[in-house]
Each structure stands twice: as structure tokens, then as C-alpha cells.
């Protein structure tokens, strides 16, 4: 004959089973974990799915920073708080642990809400000019500090003011521990208030190997992505101690400087003779200049009674280097990619053992790196290729081919003799 337990028998069994406190405690833990798993499956995952389907971007950040996950912890702690009455011997400890858990759930909830707010703020253009990530991290630091103090006070059943009063005696130690944090906070404030740099700015800081774009400004660190795609992390407070260069002024001005020289072989510098002068008069960019300059020189020599035929050193004369310099200036003035309203000149620098530097100083209208380099290369391609038309030679160190050619000519001469 089969035996089927009645409801009264099942209740009696439960009463006997639950007389053991450890078994009751285990049951409370199982119920709490079950509620956590169920709430995570039913509530949290549903919220994530709805966020992904929603056209609104704001709820995507709630999913990204796991704000919905807090609901599972909150429900589990709520169940633990009320289920504590099933274990009278352990109820006070369980309730206190649940209260401490609630403190840290609130702290984590505030932390994630601040992260969501920061992410939403960074989608607006104003975030590049006024980043708030460092200030938000300071707020998070205070929130976590308050959470630790309140959590310890709840766990030990003491007033939070007891812990706060003890911090006064440890102020020197705390200042030492949080020295870099305080310095970083001051640096972050200075960076934003004085607009030293923004997200997206190109900065150079050679001491730390930084030469690229600012991609993140946080409380403790500033991230710079170099042009070779490496990332340099610099302590924020170092920007108050070390010098750095910000290229934003160049971008705002709309002109990127060319400051490069070629080395002219000084042995090829000479006065213009009649043959070279006639050839250069045919150059479109020099025609007006040479006509006016020749009239000016001839008038001066006549007024001074100078006989230029007697000696090349008498009176004023044109040189191939000076004419070449004027040609380059006129070429730059006619160039469509060069700013005419900014400094534009071609100048000589002090002679060196390698030659006479002839420096081009001007500004390209396009500040982007690749277009700028193309313009600069085109200009110097032209300069290097036209120097020979002025009977000038650009200096370079002798190569193996030069030495081979020189030796070959010496051998040939020796054979002839």
C-alpha cells in the first residue's frame, strides 16, 4: 500500500527541519542567491535587450556601464534583509550585513550614474573645450570614501563621526598618501581654467616621448596618442612641472610654418655676367624685378660716376645668389597654397663648413599634416631643380659615386700621360 504524505505531515517535517539554525541560515542563503539569479535573468537581461532595441542613445550608456545590474543586487539584499527573521540567532548579523551591502550598492549606483552622465556630456562639442572627467573622478573618490566610512560605522554599530574625528589625527598621513591625487586635482583645474589643452589638441612633451593628439584627460593621467599610433600616459600633475608645446594656435591661425634651408656651395656664388643676365631676363617671375633693379643700379652708378667696365668690383652689381633668393620669394608669392598675409621671406643664415644656408620661411594655408608635407616637398623640389639655372650648386657630402668618378678621371689622365 502506497503512502502519500499529507499537508500536515509536510508542515511538521519543515518545522523539525527548520529547528536547526545552520539549516535555516543555509536556506536563507539559497533563497537570496535564487532571487539574485532570477532577477538577473528576468529584469536585468530584459532591460539590456530593451536598451539595445531602443532608438535612444542615452539608455545604451545605462547598459554599457551596467546600471541595470544594480537591480539584481538590490533585490537580493532586500530579500536577505527580510529573510533574516527566519534565523533569530543570526538575524542581527544578517541585517547588519544587508545594510552594509545596501550602502555599497548605493555607492556603486552613484558611481555608474556619474559615468553615464560623463559619457553623455562627452558627446557634446563643449566637452572638448571643458572636459569634466577629472572632476567626476574627484566626486567618485569622495563618494567611495563616504561609503567606506558609513559601511564601517554600520558594520561596527558606531557613529560615522567617530571615524571622521579620527581622520584629523591622520591628516598628515592622508596628505602623504593622496599627494599625487591632490596635485592631479589642482593640475586638472589649471588645465581646464587656463585652457592649456583640450581633447583633440596636438601637443609635444619630449621628456615623456609624447608627440600626438590628446585622447583622454582624467584626474590622474592624460593620454596622448602619438602619430605612430603608440599611446603615452602622462601624470596630470606633470603638466604643472614640465614644459610642453600645444599646436592648437597653429591650427587656429590657419597657417603651418615652413622653416627649412638648402645649403648652397659658396664656390658657385658670383656676380651676374651679361650672358646669365640675358638668360634670367626671360624668366617670367624675374622679368619686372630685373628691369627695375638694372635701372636703379645704372642710375646709381651714373650719379656716382662709377666706371663699372674698369673693374667688376666698381659700383653695384647683381649676384646669382641674390637673384635666386628673389626668384624663390616671387615663386612663393605666386604659390596658391602659401599664406600671403603671414610672414614670407627667403633669407641667408650664417655660412657653415657645409655651405651657405638659404632658408625658406613661410606658412602653408593647409595645416593638415599630409597636405602640408606635399606642399613643402613640391616647393623644395622646385628650388633644388632650378638652382642650376642660376649657375648655383647645392652642397651635399661626397658619395661613393662621386669618389668613383673622381678616381676614374685621375686614372684616365694618368693613362694619357
TrEMBL record:
Does the record bear Membrane in its keywords? yes
Give GO terms for biological process. cellular response to osmotic stress
Source domain of life is Bacteria
Name one matching Pfam family: MS_channel_3rd
GO MF, any single term:
mechanosensitive monoatomic ion channel activity
Record's GO cellular component terms: plasma membrane
Q: Which PANTHER family match?
A: MINICONDUCTANCE MECHANOSENSITIVE CHANNEL YBDG (PTHR30414)
**Name assigned to this protein:** Mechanosensing system component YbdG
- Record the organism: Thermodesulfatator indicus (strain DSM 15286 / JCM 11887 / CIR29812)
Provide the organism lineage as a comma list: Bacteria, Pseudomonadati, Thermodesulfobacteriota, Thermodesulfobacteria, Thermodesulfobacteriales
